[in-house]
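It would be a great kindness if you could assist me with a short task in structural biology. I am sending you one protein, given as its amino acid sequence and as whole-number tokens for its backbone shapes. I would ask you to consider whether the tokens describe a fold that such a sequence might reasonably adopt. The full record is reproduced below for your convenience.
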Amino acid sequence: MREHVSGHDYRREGDYWLVEMQVSQVEELFNNLDPLPFGERDLDANAAAYILDSVQELPDKSPIRIRIYLSSPPDAALQSLVSTTVSRYFSYRARVNRQRRANQFRKGRISLLVGLLFLSACLGLSNLLKRLNLPAVVCYAKVC
């Protein structure tokens, strides 16, 4: 059964939304330039982008399954290897994104602290100048 979500049709299988892809060979899913052994390679950029875009279109926190259709049925070992590799890739990307977000928040907090200290110093200096009745602008030229 297909359901229309965000301008696209997605199938459901029980409680799971299906992200479906069709490739002629399993090697199309992986980055061929990656020198690592087959089971440890990164996903192809286009395949990863398609999966991520599809997942982002689905309702938040919905359980999903990625279903990959091949022109010839894979053996059980290859199916397990692909499943493990895809899962490992997205777990790694999630961990990297969490680390980046944590670093951005840390930098943001430091920037906020510096900005607040600068604002406090400016307000303190302004109050000091008001109490001393000093002009806010000092003119060093003979004609002002």
Observations:
- The chain has one domain: 2-103.
